[in-house]
């Protein structure tokens, strides 16, 4: 099946050049490469065009979700690869992920993503979501080990580097632009899981990720958007009476995440994000799918199982201690 690559970009000229060169070196050629540029001022547009990409300029930085959506709208191939501009791909990355679609029930595929620092640690494998509306990029920060080398069915694919059937976006809609950047892929994954669409984790498809190369992992803007978007997930998917069933896990999970942000010097940004999120709760409130409770229970159990197998992070140890009586 033919594949279109969609790359959102904002002032990442050098990163973009490197990625475009790697795409040309893939063992499975792409049909089309679309760079959606979020109003860059560093010559990204000219560099992309010079290297054969189709560059779609946006007048301003509208965020990751809006840029990806513009690229998806232009996609005419059965598969679309969504890529951050700060990833490095193994030459057979696309070939291995595309092979997963030989099975009809596979709607998306993602591979193992390692950190760019040469530590041999994972940036992440696939995503999972707790009842707190706090996501874990499974394996993040962990040494590459056997647990992350097992192919498996997954319900959440990180859009750092993943391939999707184009038909999936026609059925479920594109990314929710209210998220701007961060957790928009988790929101889409929750829609997929709630409607019975799953994918495949292919550990042989390897990429490397710089991680928040544009702003930084704990930049105040990054923290503010994540803190806001955690509440946006609640508004868009959780039942109307979710506080009765999920209030304690939400308070614990998002509160603990705030303490982590505070430790990294971004406590004020976290509070600002929560204030924004609370303002959005009523406006963005929607009737989530009836199956969302089952999805959350299943996904949180996956987090717990993986933490038990690979060793607990402090955050998840305290989350499960405080929310599960028999943990």
Defining traits:
ten-stranded mixed β-sheet; two-stranded antiparallel sheet
Which sequence of SSEs, written as H and E, runs from N to C?
A: EHEHEHEEHEEEEEEHHEHHHHH
Q: How far apart are the first and last residues' alpha carbons, in Å?
A: 46 Å
Helical residues, percent: 40-55%
Shape: globular
Average pLDDT taken over every residue:
93
- Using DSSP, what is the number of strands? 12
Provide a count of the helices: 11
Strand content is 15-25%
| Rg | 19 Å
Q: Give the helix/strand class.
A: alpha/beta
pLDDT < 50 stretches: none
Largest sheet: 10 strands, mixed
How would you sum up this structure, described in words?
The protein is α/β, with parallel strands linked by helices and 327 residues long. The longest helix has 22 residues, at 242-263. Helices cover 44% and strands 20% of the residues. The strands form two sheets. Strands 1, 2, 3, 4, 5, 6, 7, 10, 11 and 12 form a ten-stranded mixed beta sheet that branches. A two-stranded antiparallel ribbon has the order 8-9. The protein has helices spanning 13-24, 44-50, 63-74, 93-99, 166-172, 184-194, 220-237, 242-263, 267-284, 292-310, 314-323; strands at 3-9, 32-38, 54-58, 79-83, 87-89, 106-115, 122-124, 127-129, 135-137, 152-154, 161-165, 198-209. The protein has a domain at 220-323. Helix 7 (220-237) packs parallel to helix 9, helix 8 packs antiparallel against helix 9 (267-284) and helix 8 (242-263) packs antiparallel against helix 11.
Concise synopsis of the structure shown:
With 327 residues, this protein is an alpha/beta fold. The chain is 44% helix and 20% strand.
